[in-house]
Amino acid sequence: MSSFKILEIKKSIFENNDKQADELRQELKGKKTFLLNLMSSPGSGKTTTLKNTILALKDKINIGVMEADIDSAVDAVTISETGVKVIQLHTGGMCHLDASMTKQGLEGLGIENIDLAILENIGNLVCPAEFDTGAVKNAMILSVPEGDDKPLKYPLMFTICDVLLINKIDVMEYFDFDINKCIERAKKLNPNIKIIPISAKFGDGLEEWTNWLYQEVQKWIK
Amino acid sequence: MSSFKILEIKKSIFENNDKQADELRQELKGKKTFLLNLMSSPGSGKTTTLKNTILALKDKINIGVMEADIDSAVDAVTISETGVKVIQLHTGGMCHLDASMTKQGLEGLGIENIDLAILENIGNLVCPAEFDTGAVKNAMILSVPEGDDKPLKYPLMFTICDVLLINKIDVMEYFDFDINKCIERAKKLNPNIKIIPISAKFGDGLEEWTNWLYQEVQKWIK
């Protein structure tokens, strides 16, 4: 049985989002909750990646998920099937979440005893990159069908992320996608970005990703 | 030899975008120029579709293209290879174009003798849907790898478009994409939307699309 709340997020009244984000991070540190902000284009495989990430980690740490969307609850339905706590956030047409909106989501979710809270942000490579949500780490997914030129076109997103998952590598042969060029372009923008090619559908690369995430959570909540 | 200008677009100072958009459409009617606003997620195949659309129509009508991006000029390079007039618009981080920004682009492009001006909007399913650019028709591309649930998650985009091109049908068998469900979801939001499945890469469906576009241009400029 899937069961989750739908929360209508209110627009922020705060002008200084960076300050709100820093305060939220401090609050999360005190509560021993790690917040991951997961971003990508529409349809890059965020929800499938997330589902398999949860299945790999849920017996080791307590996970809660916030699914942010303009509309619908299809992702919350999918994630709730894993058995973890999930809330669907509706942004009322807004194209991103900032720190105060994320805080509303965390309060709606309830993070007592949650080690890892994951925000699945709105599918958009532009606006979410501009707003610090208060997350401890930012991760993004770029899928092979989207093309290897995306770091050139959406540089800020690649610059602010700690991890880049290159998804759908199982269909690489059907697309003109030069993974070396893609990696080179991302590293030029952000030399410290960790890049992991994955197939969320078939599991390739997911162990490296979930190991990294698990270790980051441990460092934060210890 | 590719050659094109890069124009840094200024943020609008007008509060009433709908009024600006209507005025721009009237101006275009007077000048006998049809403006198409082409939207989609990043990496859905806008530029490839556009390139093949131009090759199919450029001997029959005069075409000019505005490539809008946050950064880079990769799309303008690709389009300029077709020989049509092209300008690269940089939005300075902005996630969409409104009517006044589009007007700046048209002035930069120069539309004397242009029958069909095409705006390749920022790759984003959220923000561009909220702003009337002054276009005569709106078209969007959804590509098969993005998934058949996108009308549920980005309803406004599907509601405001006159045409939906479902691209990358050549890779349909490698993805869980139910085209009938996708069409049903789009038609529920927008019963009048024209839906054409295409493969921009291999040409399927492009004749139906370019015929439709050619006829709309003729109706507008006659």
Topology:
The structure is a homodimer of 222-residue chains.
Chain A lengths: L4 E4 L8 H14 L3 E7 L5 H12 L5 E7 L4 H7 L4 E6 L8 H11 L6 E5 L16 E7 L6 H4 L1 H6 L2 E5 L11 H11 L4 E4 L8 H16 L1
Parallel strand pairs in A: 1-4, 2-5, 2-6, 3-4, 3-5, 6-7, 7-8
Structure notes:
2 copies of one chain form a homodimer. The longest helix of chain A has 16 residues, at 206-221. In chain A, strand 3 (63-69), helix 3 (74-80) and strand 4 (85-90) form a beta-alpha-beta unit. Helices cover 36% and strands 20% of the residues of chain A. Chain A has 222 residues and is an alpha/beta fold. The model of chain A has no long low-confidence stretch (mean pLDDT 95). Chain A has a single domain (19-221), classed as Rossmann fold (3-Layer(aba) Sandwich). Chain A has an 8-stranded parallel sheet, sandwiched between helices. At the A-B interface, helix 5 of A face helix 5 of B.
In short:
Helix content of chain A is 36%, strand content 20%.
Give me the strand/helix succession of chain A.
EHEHEHEHEEHHEHEH
Helix count of chain A equals 8
Just name the CATH architecture of chain A. Answer: 3-Layer(aba) Sandwich
Q: Give the helix/strand class of chain A.
A: alpha/beta
Share in β-strands of chain A: 15-25%
Oligomer: homodimer
Number of domains of chain A: 1
- Major sheet: arrangement of strands of chain A: 1-4-3-5-2-6-7-8
**Radius of gyration of chain A in whole Å, from Cα?**
16 Å
The average pLDDT of chain A is 95
As residue ranges, the low-confidence spans of chain A are none
* Gross geometry of chain A: globular
> Could you estimate the helical fraction of the residues of chain A in percent?
25-40%
Strands of chain A, count: 8
Largest protein-protein interface: A-B, 35 and 35 residues
Predict the CATH topology of chain A.
Answer: Rossmann fold
Beginning-to-end CA distance, first to last residue of chain A? 33 Å
The CATH superfamily label of chain A reads: P-loop containing nucleotide triphosphate hydrolases
CATH class (first level) name of chain A: Alpha Beta
